[in-house]
Amino acid sequence: MKPLASFSYSKDFTDKGLAKFGDSLLNFVFSLALSEYLGKPTGERVPNSSLALAIEMAGLRKLAPPRSDKHARGDVAEAILAYAWLEGVITIEEAVQIIRENLTEDVTHFTRKKEAIGKALAVLYREIGKRMGV
Amino acid sequence: MKPLASFSYSKDFTDKGLAKFGDSLLNFVFSLALSEYLGKPTGERVPNSSLALAIEMAGLRKLAPPRSDKHARGDVAEAILAYAWLEGVITIEEAVQIIRENLTEDVTHFTRKKEAIGKALAVLYREIGKRMGV
């Protein structure tokens, strides 16, 4: 799917609108990846702690304001994904594939789930960071 | 974007997994349509009452169990969209376009918002129902 950017946006990863749009994109991409991984349709929201872990591991922590909390870092991660998709840096298909290939069975584990999601998303964010040159 | 149905599902609109996946798809499609309508990125979750109104107006109320409440009808509506997309009955681009073209400025109104969303979604569900022959 090509980006449908018939609206304006800027490269501001603290933009609340970009984070809100990114939230819907991220949850769709993750739900699709999880459905493919489990072999049946399902949907799940990505926890902020997983997002914070993902951008930390991907070396993109620097894109979030200093001393920002887990929630603020989650918003930044959502804005980054939104921006990358709108710019054509990454497609939905690619994002789904990267997440699916990096999920482990811990994703169904009550306490280890958040970390498993974070680690799979870290691979996606590392790729996005590389492609954006940040 | 072509459906990526590398998982199995059945035509059961009361399936909870299909509804959960449909929830993520619907909120993404709606957020993209709303962003295009408003001209800037944003994201919003579709209220159950809007979904209940949409399937009522589209003549698809019969696909929900009798005496089901607003929440259960919302789940059925989400499952219908998931199924339609997975089957290739409708693409994300088409769904976004139909919603965007049928939104009105009431969507930014505090009390009239839910009805405005429901009316725009009704057009989408009418099209889906027509294409699925239900």
Q: How would you describe what is shown here?
A:
- The structure is a homodimer of 134-residue chains.
- Chain A is mostly helical and 134 residues long.
- Helices cover 60% and strands 0% of the residues of chain A.
- The first copy, chain A, is built from 5 helices and no strands.
- Chain A has helices at 16-38, 48-57, 70-86, 92-102, 113-132.
- In chain A, helix 1 crosses helix 3, helix 2 packs across helix 3 and helix 2 (48-57) crosses helix 5 (113-132).
- The first copy, chain A, is globular and about 35 Å long.
- The model of chain A has no long low-confidence stretch (mean pLDDT 95).
- Chain A binds chain B through residues 1, 4, 6-9, 15, 17-25, 27-28, 30-32, 35-36, 38-44, 82, 86, 92-93, 96, and chain B through 1, 4, 6-9, 15, 17-25, 27-28, 30-32, 35-36, 38-44, 82, 86, 92-93, 96.
Quick structural gist:
With 134 residues, chain A is mainly alpha-helical. Chain A has helices at residues 16-38, 48-57, 70-86, 92-102, 113-132. The mean pLDDT of chain A is 95.
Sheet with the most strands, sense and barrel status of chain A:
none
The quaternary state of the protein chains shown equals homodimer
Morphology of chain A? globular
DSSP summary, beta strand count of chain A = 0
H and E string of chain A: HHHHH
Mean pLDDT of chain A: 95
Integer-rounded radius of gyration of chain A: 14 Å
Q: What is the number of helical segments of chain A per DSSP (H or I, 4+ residues)?
A: 5
Q: Span between N and C termini of chain A?
A: 24 Å
Q: Specify the helix fraction band of chain A.
A: 55-70%
Most extensive interface between two protein chains, with residue counts: A-B, 35 and 35 residues
Strand content of chain A: under 5%
